[in-house]
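One such shown below:
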Amino acid sequence: MLIDTHAHLTAKEFDGDREEVLARALDAGVRYIVNPATTLDDSRRAVELAERYDAVYACVGVHPHEAATANDQVLREIEELSRHPKVVAIGEIGLDFHYNFASPESQRRVFSDQLGIARRTHLPVVIHSREALEETIRTVTDVVTDAPEWRPLPDGSSSRYPIPKGVFHCFPGSVGEAWRVINSGFLISLPGILTFKKAGAAAEVAEGVSLEHFLLETDSPYLAPVPHRGKRNEPAHLSLIARRLAELQRLSPEDVERATAYAAYKVFGIGTYPEPRFTYTLHNSLYLNLTIRCNADCVFCDRKGEAVIKGYNLRIPREPSVAEVISEIGDPRGFDEIVFCGYGEPTIRLDAIKEVAGWVKAHGGRTRLNTDGHGNMINKRDIVPELVGLIDAVSISLNATDPHQYGKLMRIDGDRYFETMLEFARACVRLLPRVVMTVVDLDEVDKARARALVENEIGAVFQMRPFF
């Protein structure tokens, strides 16, 4: 399901064929379109359009270019419009110091006032920033800090990331600035510029930020993707942007569609919450979600929160039987590999792994085990010999080279479990065809030391994995 989270359908460029534009979008697989506004009159038109079409949702707000027109009466009417059931955000709002069509002072005032509207109505915001990113980030970060009541998590729930406060559309910054935005509680989106030959920072962000934090947008009628560059843009072109994002993420277009659709659900409430799954596909690998139990509680893991990865809900209500898992696999030869990996530690269900892996190997498939390397301690015996002939590759979470840091990151007894993990890894190198050891891309982890330990001392393959 494709969702265009930023298309100006109310723009004059669509006055001659708006209905045909919408029809083409639906034919191209775009299920929903979010229409941001730039003025009070445009906000009214956005609401009217959303009332006419089930697939269209509206944002209301005053663009920084129009800040000089936003007196108190205008802002009161924006707030009133924001209570319409098809209004999903305040936007687009922000700061633009490139053209200065409105003075910086008026832009700051109107931006702050509209952030206040969002706080009062518990709506997210759609943010525009041009040549003002540092100040924009600082402004929204201050608001998030001062207003913990703005879009809180439901009572009793938890997550490493809160309900998104909004999106920085057409994100103009670096990878580092993107992570600052994300850590402040915002998503990011990139339009057709991502497909340009000289995409520059946009392509770097698309590679350097995990998919969970992206939305898709066209910014129609502007910034048409290749091969339509220079022409009027429209939502039907969204798949071209999704395809390019998939290439940069080294995933499939289906992965991008699913993950960004879930992100749109989180921020705008559009679509439906995904059902829990025992199996899930990424690119051409099938992952088996055997359990959400784990002996560790890693600081970078959302097992106790949403337990959603790339749009897949892995918070299973019960553990599947071996028969259920095999039934969902089908023909294992249709996948590059069958991977034992969910939001729990698979070796807690060692017997299930062995039975399923045996069936996969008997039917011509390849297998991989993703583990924290604590299986020997969990099962109170050396389990590596039991994996011979069943598991083609093992990926072990190294996470750190210092036992104290290891324990801190995984919230376990580092001195005890670190050595257990290393012993498991060495045994896997001796007995299994391929062993990979990974660390999360965190600043505090000594990656050079980790690489040296893995490659020179253990003899495994070293890999970084993204921080989600």
Q: What stands out?
A: The chain has two domains: 2-268, 279-465.
